[in-house]
Queue: 2 jobs
Job 1
Amino acid sequence: MPELPEVERARRRLEQLAKGKRIKKVLANEDTIVYSGVTHAGFATACEGKIVKAVKRKGKNFYLVLSEKTTPIFHFGMSGTAIVKGEAGPIYRAPRAKTEPCIWPPKYAKAVLTFADAETGEEVGDWAFCDARRLGRIKLIEAEVPEEVPPLSTLGADPFLDMPSVEVLAAALIKRHAPIKAVLLDQNGPLCGIGNWMVDEILYQARLHPSHPSSALTLEEVTTLHHHIRDVTVVACAVNADAAQFPSHWLFSFRWGKGKKEKDFILPSGEKTAIKFVTVGGRTSAVIEAVQKLPKGVVQKTKAAVKKGKGKRKAKEESEEEGEEEDEEENEEKNGDESERGEEKVTREKATSPYFDERVKLDDRAMAEALPLSPSFKLPLDLSPTKPRASTRASRSRAV
DNA sequence: ACTAGACGACGGG
DNA sequence: CCCGTCTTCTAGT
C-alpha cells in the first residue's frame, strides 16, 4: 500500500541499510515499463560503485542521494514494494502478501542492490525493488539538486516533512473547483503523498464528503481538514505504516474488500452504520454518510452510467437504481459561467468561497484545539494505539 | 473457472 | 477536468 506512510517506511529501512555505504553491485532485470528514461543496464551502471549519502523521500517518491549528480529515484505505483534480504516483505494489512521467507532474489524483483561498507568492502545487505503490476517506476535524475527538477520539483508540499499552514492550505484549496478528494489526490496540487486510502480516512475524520467542492470550503472546514491531514499522516508514520496499529476508530480496517455494496462500520459513539462506496475522481471512495454530508446545493453526480466502461453496459435495468437521486437540476445557478472562463476567473473564484477571508490569521494550534467536532465524535488528540516506543518519533509531540 | 477491483499517474477528449 | 488505460495479481462469486 504505497502511500506516504508506506513509502516513508521503505525509506527508513533503506536508509538504515544503505546510508554511508557503497552500492557494490546492482542486479537489474529488464523491464521497459518500470525503467523509465533509462534502461535496466544503464541504471545498474549509474549506481554501481557509488556511495549513498542520504535516502530521501518526497510524497510517494524516494531516492538515493549519491556521491555524484545522478540520483536514482523510485516510485511504487500500485503494487510496488521493497524487500531486504533475509527479512519478510512488509505486510501492511492482513491478510495479504504471503511473503515467502527468504527466496532471493524475490519474485518480481526489478532491481536488487547489494550494499557494502565503503572502506572494507564487506557486504552489509541486499535490497530489492519489486513490482508485480509494473506500474511502479525507476528513474534517474540528472541534476545538481534533484529536488529542483521534475518529478520532484512539481510536487505539492509533503504533509509529513513540510505541512503548510492553515492559511496557505486554504488559499490553495479554494482556487480549485474540483471535488476536495480530487484536489488532495493531485500530487502536483497543494499536497503530495496522499493516496486513496489516506484521503478517504482524512475526509471521514474531517467529516467532509469527498465530492465537496474544494472551492466551497469554509475556513473552519479547512482548519479541521488541515488537522486531520496532519493527524492521519503523522500517526500512520509513527506506527511505521503498520495497519494493525492504526487507531481502531479509523475507517481503514473497515474499508477493504468492497465486494459487497456496503460494509458495517462502528462509529466511535458505538452506533453501527454503513460504509457506502461511491466513485469520486475515478476512484472508489469509502464514505460514512452519517457524518460526511454534502453542502447544500451540491448533489452527488451518481450517474448510473459510471459502471464499467467496456461493453458492460447493462441495457436498462434502471428499475433497481432508485437508491440514487436523479435530481441533478442545479448545483449552482449563480455562476453564469457560460460567458467566459478566461477573463473574470479571479473574481469568480472568490465569489464561490464567500466564507474565506484572507485577512484572517489563525494560530494553528489554537484552532486545532477548538475543532468543531460533535461531542459524540470527539477524537482523541492523544492518539492512543501508538506504543510507548519513542525512538523515531521526534516530530510527534508538536504535531497536529 | 471467471472476473471485478486494487494502495497510481498520465494522456486524451 | 473526468475517464480510460496501462498491467497483473487476488479475492469473491
Job 2
Amino acid sequence: MEAPDLRVYNTLTKEKEPFRTVDPGKVRMYVCGPTVYKPSHLGHMVGPVIFDTVKRYLTYLGYQVTFVINITDIDDKLIAEAPRQKITVTELAERVTKDYVENLRMLNVTGVDHMPRATHHIPEIRTMIEGLIAKGFAYAASGDVYFDVTKDDDYGKLCHRDPAQLEAGSRIEVSDKKRNPGDFALWKAAKPGEPAWDSPWGQGRPGWHIECSAMSVKLLGQTLDIHGGGLDLQFPHHENELAQSESYHGTTFVRYWMHNGLMKTGAEKMSKSKGNEIVVSELLKRYDPETLRFFLLATHYRRPIDYSEDRLDEVRRGLEGFYRFFERFERITKARFYDLQAPSARSSFEPGQPATEFLVEIVRLWEQFLEHMDDDFNTGGAIGVLYELLTALNRFADSRQLESAAADPADIRALQRGALVLKELSQILGIFHQPPATRETVSNELVSGLVQLILEVRNDARKNRNFALADLIRKRLGELGVSLEDRKEDTIWRLGGTC
RNA sequence: GGCCCCUUCGCCAAGCGGUAAGGCAGCGGAUUGCAAAUCCGCCAUCCCCGGUUCGAAUCCGGGAGGGGCCUCCA
C-alpha cells in the first residue's frame, strides 16, 4: 500500500515531498533520543510525542512502522556528572534513562520498538570506524580517530552550509590532532579512570555521532525512511551522522529528515546547559500527562513552542470540554467513551442511509482531519477539527434532546457513530485513551453517598423555593471542590470545579 | 561576523496564489429560580514599504522585530 496524499517536509530539500518509502508498506524511523546525564525536561518530550504521533498516523494509513529512539549513555557530560553525584557513569545512565522511559510512558508514547544504548554497541561502532579508516574517510591520531570532512564532497548538505562557512568565525575547539578544524571525533582516547573499551587505537570511547550511524544500520538497515530529532541536532550531529553513514555504505542514509522545533522558556530555548529547563517529572506532579501531550501537539511540529503555565492552564480548560462531553456521552448511552472500540486502521466512514445532516457533517470533519494529517502531520489543524467535532456532537445531543427519557434510539445510535469517529481520530493523536487522573470519579462510596444525600436535601429546598438554602449548599460544595449542574430531571455533580 | 527560520484577533494557533479554521478570554442571546454546562451569534485583512499577478497572509525585493545554528544540547 501507499499513502498517495501524504506529504512530508524534508530538511534536506527544504520542501514538502510526497511520502514514498524504501519498501512499500514499511517505514523505518529513527529518532535521536537524549544523552542521559540529567533528568528530561519538557523539550525532550517534543520529539518522542511528535514521532509517536507520526507512527500512529502511518500505522493508521496501513504502514508497518519500526520506530527506534536511541539512548546516548556514554559521553563527556556523563563522565563529568557521575562523580558529582558520587555514582558510576553506568549508574547515572541507568537512573536518567529510567526517568526518560517513565516520562515517555506517562505521555502515552507507546510506539517505540527499540531503544538501543551506545554502550551496548561498541563492537558495531568499532567496525564502522575501522571501515571508515580503510576507505580513507577517517584517520587515527594518537588514540583518537577523526572523520576528515574534506574527504566527503557533499559535507554540509543537510545544514545547507559549505564547510568554509562552517569554519568562518567558528569557535571549534582547536586541536593539533585534527587535520581540519571541522573534523570530528569518531573515537576518543580515554584519560585514566574514565570508562573505556579496547580498540585498535587504544583504550577509549565512541565519539558523539557514530553510535547513531552504527545502531540505525543494525536495527533498520542502510537507508532510513525517516530520521527525526530536534532542530538543534541538525548541525553538527545529523550532518555528521549523514557524512559517516553515506561515506561508509555508499548509499542514501535517510529519505526524509524531520526536525522538530524547540521548546522555549520565555525568549530562550529550553536546554540543560542554560539551566532554564522544566523537568518533566516535576511538571507531571501538577499537570495531567494528557494536558502536556495536547499542548505539544497543538502547535505544528516544525515551529518553536513557548512554554508557560498560563498556556498549560489554557490547554487544560480546552480539554475540559471534551471530558464533559465524555460524561454526557455516558449519561446518554450508558457506555463509557473510553471503552469505545474505534477502528485502528483508516476506516471508510459513510453517513449511511438515510444520510442525516449530522452524520454528513461528521464525515466532512473526519475527512478534514485526515487532510491536515496528510499535510506534513499538521496536528494543530487536526486539533482544530476535533473541536469542531465536539461542537457538532453537543449540538446534536442538544437539538435531539438525547438526555431526555423520550430520546429516539436512532438518534442515540447516530451519536454513538459520531463519537466513534472522535475516538478514531483521538487515537491517532494518542489522546483520550483513559480518563485523566484528576477527573477520576470518586471511588469512596461514603463520599458519593453523602453528596447524593445533600443533593436530595438541596433539591427538596428548591422544590419549596428555598433558594437561599439551595444556593448556600451549592456554594459550600463548590468550596469543597464539588461543582453542580442542575438539569431538568436531576442534578449532576463532579469534582474539579467549573474550570 | 556567517548560515537558516519566524512575525496571522487581547493570548495560543491553522493557513503553502483565489478572497482569514479552531481554542482560551470577552460581549450579546437561548436555556436556568439564579448559576453551571451546552447551543447560537459577535469579535483580525494577516509587522512595515515596494513589486509580480485578474487576484497575495501566502511569490519576489527592501526594512523592522524575534529566534535557532555555527560550541554540549531533543
